[in-house]
Amino acid sequence: MRLLLTSDTHLPTRARKVPPPLLDAMDRADVVLHAGDWTDTATLELFTARARRLVAVHGNNDGPELRARLPEIAHAELGGLRFTIVHETGPALGREERCAERFPSTDVLVFGHSHIPWDTTAPGGLRLLNPGSPTDRRRQPYRTYMTARADGGELTEVTLHRIEAAEAR
């Protein structure tokens, strides 16, 4: 099962459109996981129409319409793994332990908010993934998203993809 992980699209405030590399990755994915901060319903509609399957949450910058349509926390079993998607996880210090305690029956936690790519494993095995942002790099060198494969209870091929400035416009 091919997965696309993204978050913090912030359209149209941080970019005018979804970057073409992210759209291409969406076309190849079996499941798209979006960890919130869409900021407009048009982007949600695009993802809903284009993704084979979308598992998504709202973020702190999403207004009432998006909050009415998307949960704060989403769960999905994909490729034999239990995924949880949430926008915010709090400060980086202590994140692994805090999230392992908060989500004890999760194998993979996908989160956003910071725009900082993150890939760690908590004691006990919880994998934490933040794909960064495909439209707003903030203090990061690149705009980013992730892809991965989930099959037979294993998460493999976790890859952080860079979006070059010319591709993000």
Automatic annotation (TrEMBL):
GO terms for molecular function: hydrolase activity; metal ion binding. This is Phosphoesterase. Belongs to the metallophosphoesterase superfamily. YfcE family. Keywords: Metal-binding. Coiled coil: none annotated. It is an enzyme of class 3 (hydrolase). Its EC number is 3.1.4.-. Residues 1-150 form the Calcineurin-like phosphoesterase domain. Its cofactor is a divalent metal cation. Gene3D superfamilies: 3.60.21.10.
